[in-house]
């Protein structure tokens, strides 16, 4: 979803993940699953609390999906590890972009990207809001 603002364009992506499905994937595929989708820092944070590990992975999975939607990257063939969720000392999470994703976003002219995560019961959700200046006519790599 994208909205035109006076000085730019706001894009929003939302995703919801069933935590038990992430647990099943971790049980079935183990480290292969985690290492394919998450950075070393994300894995270390998720594993720092065994009881919270599945919901931490699920929230980060949802965040990456929401970012792909908000930033219109679904057709760009991005590496999931190029989208990283980091938790600050204040407890707030933010998105850091690496590699090809960082290049795509720079070309597209995104100025700010905000992330909100939540989990309750068997579900984790994420919302990503991305602001792009109207002066930049470049488009993301995905469909328009």
Write up this protein.
- By secondary structure, the protein is of the alpha+beta class.
- It has one domain: 4'-phosphopantetheinyl transferase domain (Ribosomal Protein L22, Chain A, Alpha-Beta Complex).
- It is built from 5 helices and 6 strands.
- A 4-stranded antiparallel beta sheet has the order 1-2-6-5. The protein has a two-stranded antiparallel ribbon with strand order 3-4.
- Helix 3 packs antiparallel against helix 4.
- The longest helix has 18 residues.
- The protein is globular, with a radius of gyration of 15 Å.
- The C terminus is likely disordered.
The radius of gyration computed from the alpha-carbon positions, rounded to a whole number of angstroms, is 15 Å
Instruction: Kindly report the average pLDDT value.
Output: 90
Topology-level CATH name = Ribosomal Protein L22, Chain A
* N/C terminus separation: 11 Å
Q: Provide the succession of SSEs.
A: EEHHHHEEHEE
Annotated CATH homologous superfamily: 4'-phosphopantetheinyl transferase domain
How many strands, which pairing sense, and closed or not: the largest β-sheet? 4 strands, antiparallel
Low-confidence stretches are 137-144
Strand content: 25-35%
Major sheet: order of its strands? 1-2-6-5
The total of helices stands at: 5
CATH class: Alpha Beta
Shape: globular
CATH architecture assignment name: Alpha-Beta Complex
The class by helix and strand makeup works out as alpha+beta
- State the helicity in percent bands: 25-40%
Topology, number of strands: 6
Q: Please indicate the count of domains.
A: 1
């Amino acid at each position: 979803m994208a909205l035109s603002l006076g000085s730019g364009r706001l894009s929003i992506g939302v995703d919801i993940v069933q935590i038990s499905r992430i647990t099943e994937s971790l049980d079935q595929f183990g480290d292969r699953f985690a290492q394919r989708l998450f950075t070393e820092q994300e894995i270390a944070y998720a594993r720092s609390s065994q009881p919270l590990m599945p919901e931490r992975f699920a929230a980060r999975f949802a965040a990456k999906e929401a970012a792909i939607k908000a930033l219109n990257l679904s057709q760009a063939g991005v590496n999931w590890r190029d989208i990283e969720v980091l938790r600050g000392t204040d407890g707030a999470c933010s998105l850091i972009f690496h590699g090809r994703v960082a290049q795509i976003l720079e070309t597209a002219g995104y100025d700010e990207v905000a992330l909100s995560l939540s989990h309750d019961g068997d579900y984790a959700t994420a919302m990503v809001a991305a602001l792009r200046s109207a002066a930049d006519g470049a488009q993301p790599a995905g469909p328009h």
